[in-house]
User: Fold this.
Amino acid sequence: VLAGVITLDGTSMEGWAHLLAARTLISSRQQQAASDTLAAAIQRFANTPVGEQALWNLAELVREHFEDADNAMSIYEQLLRDYPESVYTGPARRWIRKLQNGDGAT
Assistant:
């Protein structure tokens, strides 16, 4: 997906390009490719705003499109551990509670 990106290796622009590519893949109903792209961004951009956003996006993708509550909870929990000051802390905690109570994956 990112083959045509001009040498952005290791820059935050590369990270944001990953996030944009994942969003495009989701819009094109290519959820597995989007998941793979987000997982790569999480690994490559750990402890950065890109990594934080990629974790949130992956949790939402897994919850909404794959309807996998257990995996979504695990990703939300990782977000809370890795980014305790995240703007997504509140929403992640709410989703964890909802999913634990069986309120559905979507």
